[in-house]
Design brief:
CATH architecture: 3-Layer(aba) Sandwich
Largest sheet: 6 strands, mixed
Strand content: 5-15%
Shape: globular
Strand order of the largest sheet: 1-3-4-5-2-6
Structural class: alpha/beta
CATH topology: Rossmann fold
Bound molecules: adenosine-5'-diphosphate, magnesium ion
């Protein structure tokens, strides 16, 4: 089917007015969008990424640190290229969000329907269900339980209420039962990550996936010295 830049923009406008609105920190991706002539549906979706991560590719990730750390990064990228669950945790600036967006892009290119959302944005969505006339908790969480690939960033930044992790566990458990990959990202240290997520969530993710402690120095420092 031949489509034009205008029909590509029409697709975007339609997706923006669909019942599921993208949140600032969230990306709702429709894999069924057809390839367009000059501007592909992939390009249009990638343009919705935050400017810092707008051109994310695994090939842009520079392997850093010791030989052991570089081997760990290679293994991580290999996992992120597949439909596998991953927990990335550790130091700030080690490329967790960059790799998450590279993985998002990779999934879009493969025709999947991935969602990226920060934990805080997810919790804000869930809070909408507390309003009397708001959507039900079931309706809100369904999207995250069902999507092909879910990235939840900054798990360590939340309001700190126990309900938050109950809701997170509920989503992860449903995804685990349906063999759907989930990527969780946190700035936690090695000793804190299991406490933060809870043992059962941690084990569900790593059962078919990988947990990687990003213990190399921040790349931001390297960028600031250029
Ligand atoms: N290994 C790397 N190779 C190239 N760029 C990197 C690497 N690690 C981080 N960056 C860049 O450094 C900045 C911080 O990375 P980011 O993914 O936001 O870190 P984190 O989410 O771990 O705090 C971004 O601009 C990112 O593109
Ligand atoms: Mg980050």
């Amino acid at each position: 089917m031949i489509t034009t830049a205008k029909s590509a923009m029409d697709n975007v406008m339609r997706s923006l007015t669909s019942p599921v609105q993208p949140h600032d920190d969230e990306l709702y991706l429709n894999p069924k969008q057809e390839s367009t002539g000059q501007i592909s549906a992939i390009d249009i979706r990638v343009k919705e990424f935050p400017p810092r991560y707008r051109d994310p590719h695994f090939s842009k990730y520079v392997l850093v640190g010791t030989e052991e750390q570089r081997a760990k990064q290679e293994k991580l990228i290999q996992h992120l290229r597949g439909m596998r669950s991953v927990i990335m945790y550790g130091n700030n600036g080690t490329g967790k969000t960059l790799l998450a967006y590279a993985s998002m892009r990779d999934k879009i290119e493969k025709g999947y329907n991935p969602i990226y959302i920060s934990f805080l944005a997810l919790m804000n969505k869930i809070k909408e269900s507390y309003n009397q006339n708001g959507p039900s908790l079931y309706r809100i969480t369904e999207e995250y339980k069902r999507c092909d690939y879910l990235v939840i960033d900054e798990i360590d930044k939340s309001y700190g209420t126990p309900n938050e992790f109950l809701n997170l566990n509920h989503i992860i458990d449903a995804r685990y039962n349906n063999c759907k990959p989930t990527v969780l990202i946190s700035n936690s240290s090695e000793s804190d990550i299991i406490d933060l997520l809870g043992k059962s969530t941690f084990e569900r993710i790593v059962e078919d996936g990988l947990a990687v402690y990003m213990d190399w120095p921040s790349y931001r420092m390297r960028l600031s010295m250029r």
